[in-house]
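Pinned message: reference record for PQ loop repeat protein
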Amino acid sequence: MTADPYCEHLASPNGWVLALSVQLVLGILISYIPQHVKIIRHGTSAGLSPWWVLLGTISSIAALANILVLPSSQHDMACCREISGKACGAALLGVVQIGVQWVCFMTIMVLFLVFFPRDAFANPPPEHLPPDTPRKRDAVIVGVTSFISLLTVGLISTLFLYHLPSHLLSWANFLGILAAVLSSIQYIPQLYTTWKAKQVLSLSIASMLIQVPGAFVFAFSLWLRVGWEGWSTWFVYCVTGVLQGALLVMAIIYDRKEKSGGAVEQGESNERDPLLESSGRSG
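Predicted structure (tokens):
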């Protein structure tokens, strides 16, 4: 029996909410794997907008800091001193969900830099590169800005936690709004990049097929934990789901056009082969 009624409630977690949260953690991890694999398998991050990667990285940092400093999350973590380890793990699954997503997107950022198109590092760049191909400076901006953002948000959040605890909710709301705004802006350059290239390239359709519906389920699960007071935590995933859905539709259209175009070329080649062979024999 715990002294805090709130902690007493956490000591007996809702079974179906717990099951949903665990499935979401696994779903988030699985949804990012195809994107990671596609970049590694292709050996290039071409097709990924540097600004999509940068804004998504900063957004994920803000989202993680948001739920960590949210007063309800702080209360959950404090209750872990009074409840069992299993109940504590269940109470913190919301934090784990966003933490896993942060790790997965940070992995995309690292892979984007590791497999950045090598031609972009040539000085001067080769003339055959399209004018909208990312340049060396883009890779530097993404890497440096991501590191500075992580360090800055971490230091400021620590300051609020230990010296300005009465303003934690305001800081959490700011981080949530920042994450939502950046997440919204994030998909504009990627939508433009994909539309400009008219190809999917390193963008993974498989990942988006899982992530689009998963974004809304994720938002619902977070709402169950933090309620309307924590709207800044789950609203970002509603925004992300809508915009990522638009990108998914665009990617599927271009992918089908590319495949149908390849099939037509293959068909034309097969139709010409017998004629070429017969003309060769008659000669």
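Pinned by admin. Summary line: The two ends are 96 Å apart (CA to CA).
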